[in-house]
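Check out one such.
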Amino acid sequence: MAIEIKIPNIGNFDAVDVIDVLVNVGDVVSVDQNLLTLESDKASMDVPSDQAGKITEILVKVGDQVKEGDTIAMIEPTSSEDAPKAQDTAASATPKAAPSTSTNVIDIIIPNIGNFEAVDVIDVAINVGDTIHKDQNLVTLESDKASMDVPSEIDGTITEVLIKVGDQVKEGVVIARATVGAAQPAQAPKAAPKAEAAAQTIVEPKAATAAPSDVDCDVVVIGAGPGGYSAAFRAADLGLKVALIERYPTLGGVCLNVGCIPSKALLHVVKAKEEAEKHLKHAGIYFDAPRIELDEIRNYKSSVVSKLTGGLAAMAKMRKVDVIQGVATFKNDHHLTIALSDGGERTLSFDKAIIAAGSRAIHLPFMPEDPRIIDSTGALELREIPKRMLVIGGGIIGLEMATVYSNLGANVEIVEFTEGFIPGADRDLTKIFEKYNKDRFTKTMFKTKVVGAEALPEGIKVSFEGDNAPSEPQVYDYVLVAIGRAPNGLTLNAENAGVNVTDRGFINVDKQMRTNVGNIFAIGDIVGQPMLAHKAVHEAHVAAEVCAGHKRFFDIKQIPSVAYTDPEISWAGLTETEAKAQGIAYEKAVFPWSASGKALASSREEGMTKLIFDPESKTILGGAVVGINAGDLIGEIALAVEMCADVTDIAHTIHPHPTLIESVGMAAEVAEGACTDLPPAKKK
């Protein structure tokens, strides 16, 4: 009687292509003989026969798409004596029972893994003594391209598990042994024969020591910034026992305490001030000169921060997350040493760790130690409003702080090494910012750098070089250094756990945020650019869910960026600058805010909205907005890129009127040549 041969587990793919059929009707095949080859957009995979016999029917052809469980052929089974011997028992896409030295114990081996020499073990779902059933997943493997489950081909009982999470394995390696048939009492585990080592380990985590510990947990998270607390809370929500280690008194890290949130509070204050002073007078409303009370501004900023950090402390308590204040360093791959902030030391043991240790401001080595030379943290303290201030760096942080201080009365000069502000943004966006702010900053020096500084009683004497450098050194009351941030990877003694850290302090991870040590993950600034809180939170959820045994991957098409300047600048997906550098064909559509009713009514018509799309498919590849509240508008473009929407999808979506967000829809209409809020498009 003929039986069906089906497509086995194909990982995370809904369907894959048949690229080769290796047998014909009438062929006699053996167990493990390859029948056809499948291919996804990530890798290829052979499908072997799990029966010896004669092919009576073939139900697929080259070019078909098939799903897991689809029937691909019919086979008339024959006895093992009649069938040809399998040439390579390791060539299957599902694990096969290989004879062991024991008569009723079989070896379970790694199947065909496509074009990869070795793959990572990211989950082991069995233990010695477990009863298993046919098609039950035993382990999960991952390459740099995709993941793959290894199911059982038998019903039986596991007698030996020969691999662990973090190992690298090759095709044909024995991963476990099992007795065949109904559940039987578990046998004592056997030692793996040396000639048959189960795990071809490339990076072997150090063995966990039996050292006593003060705290035990399933997952420890190092650092309580947006990425760290998100990882801790998500892991706790998934039922894991979690410890969260933070060096500062409050949760939230740099972002909540001395970064994103306090800076936005100050930017809100100066935005309201400028609205009253600059924009409302055009509508017939006038105000006297404002009185600026720095103490009250600082109190307002602190109140915003306290609400958020206090809320985080409450949520940690609700989730029973053990928050430990101190500095953590690795003792080995399962233990941390924590230098407590109130003195003393604790040892913590963990099953898995998530490193979320963040970054720190970069300082220029030639700058003297002086309280008048500040970084972004010092700038947010708002000690006083200097008469003359130099901002070194025309990136997002430098421009945001320059906006705050100039609006509060400082004469601000900016020096930037490149040819324009915010190097990651397209020039047409920053040109609008420059034009709008031509009278805000006292001086802007592009293609210029600082080469020296000296602390004098009257101020900081700064020397320059470059196309727009002053001929003589200049003296400033305050100097803000905003030239970027460096990761904290070199502060953790991560080498004690076997974790690879680059010379610059970054930690490389895979798509599941796993380091080269299988039970240790890393997220946020420490894994590389862009150093953004929302990226860290997304990575945090991935890492926490993988720690809990879920199949999650950091697989994104875009990461939005926002400069909270005046006007704001935001972008997502492919930029024009990147497209040109990479030779990617694109078209763009721009809707100027001078044609936006909401922008005109708000006296903020300087902005624009831009979409970048594929010339053939019209798929949206990226986009940008410059103008008031641009950061609140970029979300629709980010979603469009992530969902592979085309310009028609956006153009045919009804947007509310009059709003600034409808400028995204109108830019899409421009792309279609159908915008009726602008002069008619030129016919091509």
Q: What stands out?
A: Confidence is low (pLDDT under 50) at residues 80-103, 183-210.
